[in-house]
Input
Amino acid sequence: MPTRDKESYSIHSVDNALAVLEALCDEPGDVQISRLSEKLGMNKTSVFRLLATFENRGYVEREEQTGRYRLGLSAYEVGQKLISRMTMLRQARPVMERLARECDEAVYLALRRDDELLFLDMVDTPQQVKIISLVGKRYPLSGIAAGSVILAHSPTEQPLSRELAEIHRRGWASGHDVLGEGIACLSVPLFNGEGSVPASLSFLGPDFRLEEQRLRDDFLPPLREAGQTISSKLGFLGNYLNS
Output
């Protein structure tokens, strides 16, 4: 199959939209459509339509009195989420690598995204029998150990279910066959500087190696220690085991 360079896959309308957004980022203050049109070499109608689309999604704000545009809160939120993820990855990765070497099993970092769980990073095991990588995959937040430890430590107006209350009390969750037949998971929460839990740290592997009693006896202590270390690196100052 012939290869194609990246330019051949470019979508012109998306490229124009991103150019407008980047141009707004470069401006020190609010900017008029005519300024963006001249700067980008695009006609005013096209620029207006792109700005209107961004405005509808909150990425751009329009000053009513002057008609000038600026970046909106949605753009700020995306930037903050990216910074947060990069910080978390940078702080967690060395700890994950040490944990994987110590226990010889795959270690996963999972992040909450609204009502979903995103497996963000993984340090694999050298063992021959292992599960297929879940990095980049999303799952419902509830029902799996890596998501349950996040839910169990999340503020809610409703009382926690009996299961989540127990997970909150003991500080960890485990599960079998939820992510796939024969897959076991052991998870602990990761706290940030605000005391909230945006992510979890987990062992994932075949259940014949990660049977329940061994999870608790051999894998839980180093996993909790790693969770405490990462939480401290993220600015958490509380008592990890009693949070």
